[in-house]
Amino acid sequence: MGDVYTRAERSALMAKVRGRGNLTTEEALAKLLRAQGWSGWRRQQVVRGRTAAGERFQVRPDFVFRGRRLVVFVDGCFWHGCPRHGTRPRGNAAFWRGKFRRNQARDRRDTRRLRRQGWRVLRLWEHELKPKARPRLRVKLGKVFARARKSPTGRSG
């Protein structure tokens, strides 16, 4: 079945979509963190730093654990090109290929920058938050939290 919207209508609709605050996935992770007793996180907090060349940058991870120097991103399967669940729109295929490539390049760049600043970076796929996958996610998060022990002072650096 074809799209029910014209190209202009679809474009206007997609332009309204914003990447911040995906409530279903972020809320699912927040509930899991609370249930496991993992605290000390803030949502959508800016993390600033400098590149090796001295340029300033800022990244807004979905969850920031400053005391643990840990950031968590919840990447949507569609927008970040999940190899298992990512779908590709047929219309305007060249645009979407470029869009997904740019998103993935930005994700790699942000991860690299944060790691160079001493942050531990965890990227989760949206599908890892589905109820059937949560037992595996709990184990994964437990391992990450065991490695990212809270600093004795509780400060980030």
Protein described:
- With 157 residues, this protein is α+β, with helices and mostly antiparallel strands.
- Helix content is 39%, strand content 16%.
- The protein has a single domain, classed as 3-Layer(aba) Sandwich (Endonuclease, Chain A), CATH 3.40.960.10.
- The protein has a 4-stranded mixed sheet, sandwiched between helices. The chain has a two-stranded antiparallel ribbon with strand order 2-3.
- Strand 4 and strand 5 form a beta hairpin.
- The model is unreliable at 152-157 (pLDDT under 50).
Could you provide a short overview of the structure?
The chain contains 4 helices and 6 strands, in the order ααβββββαβα. The protein is α+β, with helices and mostly antiparallel strands and 157 residues long.
Question: Which series of helices and strands comes N to C?
Answer: HHEEEEEHEH
Alpha-carbon distance between the termini? 54 Å
Number of helices: 4
Overall domain count: 1
Proportion in β-strands: 15-25%
Defining traits:
alpha+beta; Endonuclease, Chain A; 4-stranded mixed sheet; two-stranded antiparallel ribbon; 6 strands; disordered C terminus
